[in-house]
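The methods section describes the discrete structure representation at length, but only in general terms. Each protein is reduced to its one-letter sequence and a matching series of backbone shape codes. I believe one specimen quoted in the main text would settle the matter. An entry of this sort, consisting of the sequence and the corresponding backbone structure tokens, reads as follows.
***
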Amino acid sequence: MNERCPPSAATERASGIADVRKDHARLACFVQLLLQHLRTCRASHLLVMLTMAIGSMGMAATFFIGDGALLQLRRDMEQLMGSQITIMPDPGPNGALLKTRASVAFTAADLEALRQRVPAARHVVPHQFARTTMVAKGIETAIMVEGISPELYDDAAFRPVAGRGFSASAREGTSFECLITKSVVTRFRLSIGDPISVAGRLFTVVGVVPDPPLADSRFQIRIVMPFQTTWLMYGRPGLYDSFVAVWNQPDHLEILLDQLKATLDDVVGPDCYNLSSSRIAAQKWKNVVANVMAFGTAQAFFCVLVASIGVANVMLANVVRRRREYAIRIAMGARQTEIFGLVLCESMLIGLAGGLAGVAAGMAISPLVCHELAGRIHEVQRLAPIFGLRGILIPLIACGISGLLAGVVPALQIRRMDVLSVLHAE
């Protein structure tokens, strides 16, 4: 009885090399056939890619311009509005606060509670507002006085744009120095070093600070002093007219607001306080920009959806036109999965080609759109697009996936094709 000899190592190695060469040949044939199909693109292919490119262009431009607008908004808020929330007491509905305490003003216990229970705040410090009289260059007028704590001296809202800040003696309350807003300079023509009388005390103007953002013109005319000075002039022992909370990070605004509201509701009672912050207004503008971006992206996705329907129609027409070619290749040994993958790859490449063209067009038109907006809207004169990865990858991924999904139905027609019937009919 003859026994079958096991294959030698050389035979196995030769068989493995043959399999690898066969796989390489299949891959080369697949790529060659794919390139041949792409080279024979018809006008319908170009029209579909153009539609896909329009959607991709709209999506990319929306992200480029929107990201630029959000960055510019953040920069403007940081430069002009600082990073603080002003907390002011309120009697509440039907004087609810006065039922539990003798005065509407905050107390030292309130300040300590906020400092301990609001970790999102870098500082919670007392703040002073007062309405008093000022005499400058022989003119007497009523003016707002604001007393700021040392923690706010370097805040953007109180950083001098001309002159200097408070000296050490002024911070301790042993000398009288003040900062004035730009509106005070314009209205009273004051200069750095000029003396002014505030509530009967002689002060020296040492610097100029920006006008308070989003404030009425009447309240933009104000004098800024160290809190120690205003406390000596207008303060009441153990009571504070307002607090200021400075956050650790700009992105933690919502967290800070939630912690402040929870603490104040417990300490003074619901609706017995007011929170005032230009950042809250900035957050509203940020939401507006985000909504505009969402609307633009939705429109662009609609264009991509329409284009994907066009891709599906084009690929169905190609499958019908190439039925005989596909049947011959299957009969000669090609796998149906290879033909299936060929149709999917061709469909996805059409989507990616349209997406890439759209991204390039979006990068080209975004500066033009920003320039046009700057010419029409004064507030966005410094708007510039940001060519980030989000504006590049999302349109490409959306177009690629749309093209891939659009090729599924035409590819399934290949899997269901009866090769013998097609060859017989042809």
Observations:
- The two ends are 53 Å apart (CA to CA).
- The CA atoms of residues 183 and 221 lie 5 Å apart.
- The chain has 14 helices and twelve strands.
